[in-house]
Amino acid sequence: MRLPWELLILQSFMLCLADDNTLHGPVFIQEPSSVIFALDSEENKVKLNCEVKGNPKPTIRWKLNGAIVDTGMDYRYSVVEGSLLINNPNKTQDAGTYQCIATNSFGTIVSREAKLQFAYLENFKTRTRSTVSVRQGQGMVLLCGPPPHSGELIYAWIFNEYPTFVHQDNRRFVSQETGNLYIAKVEKSDVGNYTCVVTNTVTNQRVLGPPTPLILRNDGVMGEYEPKIEVQFPEMVPSAKGTTVRLECFALGNPVPAISWRRADGKQIPKKARRHKSSSILEIPNFQQEDAGQYECTAENVRGKNVARGQLTFYAPPSWIQKISDAHVAIEESIYWECKANGRPKPSYSWLKDGELLIPQERIQIEHGTLNITNVNLSDTGMYQCVAENRHGAIYVSAELSVIAVGPDFSKSFLKRLTLVKVGGDATIECKPKASPRPTFTWRKGKEILKENERVTLLEDGTLKITNITKADAGSYTCTAVNHFGAASSTGNLVVKDPTRFIVAPNSMDVTAGESILLPCQVSHDHPLDIMFTWSFNGRLIDFEKEGDHFERVGGQDSAGDLMIRSIQLNHAGKYVCTVQTSVDKLSAAADLIVRGPPGPPEAVTIDEITDTTAQISWRPGADNRSPITTYVIQARTPFSVGWQAVNTVPDIIDGNTFTATVVGLNPWVEYEFRVVAASLIGIGEPSKPSEKRRTEEALPEVTPANVSGGGGTKSELVITWETVPEELQNGGGFGYVVAFRPVGTISWMQTVVASPDASRYVFRNESLPPFSPYEVKVGVYNNKGEGSFSPSTIVYSADEEPTRAPTMVFARSLSASEVEVFWSLLPESQSKGRIQGYEVRYWKHGDKEEQAGRMKTTTNQTFAKITNLKGNALYHLAIKAYNTAGMGPSSAVVNVTTKKPPPSQPPGNIIWNSSDSKIILNWDQVKAQNNESEVKGYKVLYRWNRQSSTYVIETNKTSVELSLPFDEDYIIEIKPFSDGGDGNSSEQIRIPKITNAYARGSGSSTSNACTLSAISTIMISLTARSSL
């Protein structure tokens, strides 16, 4: 039986658990940070921030130097929303280390430490300073001696009067460590008064020291001397991680020393480092562990050098790498926490409970950053903090420990209501109530208590396991849990089902690529159970949506999950597994699929040896894709071939066990690449990758130029032409042509070499060449290997001479407004040195330039020409020249001709037609020519059947015509005038439809007016003039 005070504690604790989503211990949102307060600040108050959350709301207290700040005793202190506000701060009373303390019913936590410091700057104590007397060329140091202060200072020096400040360079330097002014070598210009200016960076307050006069001694100039380092960094310089490290180095000397920096440990100075004030300052931003080491400053002039060294050491305050978190532990269990922090030097650890140092006891073990509490009880509940600290700082992390003590409760973890299992299977029923401490468990089936046997196992955590299930195991099962604080039960049912079995399992198959197959998967199962089929391929689940091009699940009932594979590819070969799953069991069946296909591409195609016409090729076989390779075919490609071409080989047929062959019939001096294609009984495979490119060896040329001919040219020339030999048939480099020729009937050949392989023409010039004389001509070839054969000889004539006589008896006449005809006499060949091949007629309009003349040529014996497309009523000039292959002869005398006036532009109008008996009568208005047009001489009537293209023309000098036509067709008729200037414009087309009545009328204003006329079977045309012109 529990004591009353124990039950009270338990009840209170249970109330907290009931709302554990909102109730919790204090947690810092913002911890205080160190503050430097300027004493002369107008605000006259300091605020140390502290923000905490928790439920219940925490109360806030503050510590100063370990003692509680009593806000009730000192009106200057007040806590506002957790933060500490200090009015009228006093550096004597208020400077120190502060901590924020937060407490609620769950416990207490303390914040990190925050320092409050006061910044100030007092005035210089002395009002005058002694005069400094130095020799010119001597080095000098003016001391600043800053007054009492707190906070970082910045130093500067005024020269003579404000605002003239000392300019720092390689000769003058102001140290920000000491405030002193250093002049490496004094010059006359340095004489004057110097005043040290000190500025506090926190308060921005600035004070000026008393002026120091500098004068030159008159006992001579200081001679040269070696450098003396006056400003140097300490032997040990501790540097914090991430800060900017600043090293100073300056020397006196004559001449002025040069400053340089290096690392004494041989490493390179970091690239991020910067040098200032003529290298007197080395600055390293974002200082890291790798930047630590010994640094060396060297001051050097012609008299010697001096060296200063110092060690930069790396330190870092602690930073967390592993924190602790809230824990809920059952009573009598154990809690283990571990916190880890980085830092240099390595941090030490301590633990706090509710703000007080935790001391190791029998149950409480503390080692480094670990805390282990065994057999926890309610008194261990509270707020815990791990503190990591080194000499550069301390950090805190907090967590809440809740100790749970509660009787068994199944409200959130009932037994599984229904557990399904197959006959022969195993059943596991978990019993996991919420309880602290851990309860003991008993099980019942129905009303009978279960006892362990060879099939029934009761685990310590309450789980029930039954193996080799039978139908008799079905029923209700109850788990009862009991501990010191109570007991509870939960019941579930075990249902036993028949197992699933394969009826038709997938079977292994051997198929050819491109086929489609069905892998069956059919089962018998307990039908009330849902069933699911899945297929995997080589251990990977098939996604039927993404892979639907080849895979499809088929089966018209819930007991079938067959797999259809369409258009099988080689990569579909492998193991296929059908998996069938119900809520009680899962089983699988596998089948191996062998896919045979055309061979893969052969590999490593190599040209082992190459001659002028052969190549020895070898290769390695590619994948046979489960079908033995029967033959190989070699293909070749050149820059001149259209794609890949099969080539002749030895052996002629390459069987599947042969991996080398000789390619024959190649062209010499051609760059070849080869590939190999394998074939099997299933088909032809993909070709191999091409071999390297190799050129066959050179050989004598065998192909001679084709179509050797020539002729033409100018006087005293013999022109010989031929078709070039293609590059792939030249058989070698240095290819060219040998041109041979001789007069017909002679014995000796004249030869010349044309060295260009692209040449297709040779011109032989000689003043003694008779015109148009026959020559026997042939063209041969050669290359680097020697000369080849000549082409068959052919006859080519030498160039002709231009005609020397002009055509005579030239006259012209006008045919119409756009045509003229010109005539001339034939020139006898005996009267001209050059042959006459024809005549060229040149014509141009009066007023145009002769150079713009139109030209037309005639054949040899033609002595007239018709010129068309001329302007009407225009004067034209004409001249004629004879020509041959050598060129044009002299021009004839120019003749003139005027074209006729243009024909009438107005078409016939007001066309009317009518039918009477078997006739069609057309009437139209007379066309009158304009002043610049030819007079009308008559009219042309053009007609055709609507379905034929042939047009018939009738001429008349009247304005009417009578037609006798078969009336069983539609007719298209148009009328136009004609004159000496040619035909005028036509009227609109008139359509006369089939005639069905004895009488019909119509007009030419529209071709769509249709009258139906009766058909007449005879064709007769008669014309009768109705009126004279």
UniProtKB/TrEMBL annotation:
Residues 32-117, 122-209, 227-308, 318-402, 408-495, 499-588 form the Ig-like domain. PROSITE patterns: FN3, IG_LIKE. Gene3D superfamilies: Immunoglobulins (2.60.40.10). It is a lipid-anchor; GPI-anchor. GO terms for molecular function: cell-cell adhesion mediator activity. Residues 601-699, 704-801, 806-902, 903-998 form the Fibronectin type-III domain. Residues 1-18 form the signal peptide. Residues 687-712 are annotated as: Disordered. It comes from the Eukaryota. Transmembrane segments: none annotated. Keywords: Cell adhesion, Cell membrane, Disulfide bond, Glycoprotein, GPI-anchor, Immunoglobulin domain, Lipoprotein, Membrane, Repeat, Signal. Its main location: membrane. One of its GO terms (cellular component) is axon. InterPro entries: FN3_dom, FN3_sf, Ig-like_dom, Ig-like_dom_sf, Ig-like_fold, Ig_I-set, Ig_sub, Ig_sub2. PANTHER family: CONTACTIN 3B-RELATED, PROTEIN SIDEKICK. Belongs to the immunoglobulin superfamily. Contactin family. This is Contactin 4. It comes from Salvator merianae (Argentine black and white tegu).
